[in-house]
Write a structure and sequence with these properties.
Chain lengths: 247, 197
């Protein structure tokens, strides 16, 4: 019997290997992840995340799950906004990324209302109907079975809760040549110079291209049961924020 | 209409930079479960202020209930926040609704902040738009400068970690060697002079 395959960047690999290979990428970039994020996006990722916070409608006392939360950028915003009555759970499959996030939030004095859980998005270890808000920023494209992950998120979301997906997406055509040059030439070079790790950054660029475009992702959300799904393109579609509700 | 996010983030950063005194922190902690909605009449724009222990969030959108709402013309509101003068509240252009009792705390918080852009906006009522644009540019520049500084710092740290930048000890050693070289050169010159070479 042949193994089912999936993509890892532009490479086809057995499905069973993807989580491990993605894990290796984030193990290797964890320590320099924040620096690379700033350099690669010239700081703009902060605004993309800030916009996601605006769309989240987050309120005091809410239960928030920041999935694939990595080094805790979004969680830091939410922890301040939900206050001491609320709770933010940062879940990530990778222990190294979680550790960086945990240290960083502790340094900012954000401790009382934040928890860190090592978990796979495809099979979330939480009871049904638990969260008012789930966010997943730059994480979904790394997940092997995206449908399973969306179903899992739907299950743990409270009725009337919302899901926000911030992810690289399909750029407008006029931006494409420049964007391709940047992603496939400049980005791996920066990865080599800054993190001494061109391959991981090549994977990041390739995985962006293999991720479903805006419309496809919205359809996937609808198939998973989310309603009133929409998306907002940012920076010419370099990234998009998808939003859907469990009603 | 909503304010551009970079502008809102820049103003928020300016405000949070000014929160330095313990009294301000105490006020923030007291206000941290409250939401203030500001309606900028004329440009029909809402800004939501959400305090937390170390600062405030300024959001364009907020779907929850607000504890107190204030509505007025942008420059009137700016003057109110700058001076903290509650007498201005009775001016007919300003409307305060909901939990009015907590508003003086918000006012106190803002009036203790004195970023430059406030002066820019409030002192130039005549050149209204010119002042506005200057302020916007100024805010964005400050924000940009902040971002650049943060990036330069991380890059500097990285260069240092990779031993691409000399450490302080290496620099001191290097300077000492140059000084020694200079001294040697002076001595040598003196000797040459002495022997009339
Ligand atoms: C590019 S980082 C994004 C981190 C953070 N959300 C941010 O925006 O900066 C992607 C994260 O997804 C995590 N991840 C990948 N596959 C995952 C999975 N199946 N379940 C949970 N997290 C996963 C990685 O470990 C990594 O921390």
């Amino acid at each position: 019997m042949t193994d089912k395959t999936t993509h890892f960047g532009f490479e086809q690999i057995p499905e069973t290997e993807k989580a491990q290979r993605v894990g290796a990428v984030f193990d290797s970039v964890a320590a320099r992840y924040d620096l690379m994020n700033d350099v690669m996006s010239l700081g703009v990722h902060r605004l993309w995340k800030r916009y996601t916070v605006e769309l989240s409608g987050v309120r005091r006392g809410w239960q928030v799950l920041d999935l694939a939360g990595g080094t805790g950028d979004l969680a830091a915003h939410f922890a301040k906004l939900v206050g001491s009555q609320g709770r933010v759970v940062v879940a990530d499959i990778n222990a190294a990324m979680l550790q960086v996030g945990q240290d960083r939030l502790a340094n900012q004095g954000l401790v009382g209302n934040v928890e860190f859980v090592q978990a796979d998005a495809e099979n979330l270890p939480f009871v049904d109907d638990q969260f008012d808000l789930i966010t997943i920023a730059f994480g979904l494209r790394n997940v092997t079975h995206k449908e399973a992950a969306l179903a899992s998120m739907f299950r743990v979301l409270k009725p009337s809760g919302r899901l926000l997906i911030l992810e690289f997406s399909k750029v407008t055509p006029w931006l494409k040549p420049l964007y391709d040059f940047y992603s496939f030439k400049a980005l791996p070079l920066m990865g080599r110079l800054i993190a001494n790790d061109a391959d991981s950054y090549r994977y990041l660029a390739e995985s962006i291209r293999m991720h479903p475009d805006q419309e496809t992702l919205r359809d996937m959300m609808v198939d998973a049961g989310f309603e009133h799904c929409d998306y907002h393109n940012l920076s010419g579609g370099i990234v998009a924020v998808h939003r859907g509700y469990k009603l | 209409m909503s304010l551009p996010l970079p502008l809102l983030s820049a103003v928020e950063m300016l405000i949070n930079q000014q929160v330095t005194q313990p009294a301000q922190h105490r006020l923030l902690v007291e206000l941290s479960a409250k939401v203030l909605a500001i309606h900028l009449r004329g440009i029909d724009t809402w800004v939501y202020v959400l305090p937390y222990a170390d600062g405030v969030y300024l959001l364009n959108q907020y779907e929850g209930c607000c504890d107190v709402q204030i509505s007025g013309l942008p420059l009137t509101l700016l003057r109110l926040f700058k001076t903290g003068d509650v007498a201005l509240l009775s001016a007919e252009q300003i409307q305060l609704i909901d939990e009015q009792a907590i508003f003086p705390d918000f006012l106190l918080l803002f009036s203790r902040l004195q970023p430059d852009w406030e002066t820019l906006l409030t002192d130039k009522l005549d050149a209204r738009w010119a002042a506005k644009i200057t302020a916007v540019l100024d805010d964005s520049r400050q924000w940009q400068r902040q971002q650049q500084q943060a990036m330069a710092q991380s890059c500097g740290q990285w260069l240092h970690n990779r031993h691409l930048l000399p450490s302080r000890a290496e620099l001191i050693d290097f300077t000492a060697q140059i000084q020694k070289l200079e001294q040697d050169l002076t001595q040598l010159t003196e000797k040459f002079n002495h022997f009339n070479i």
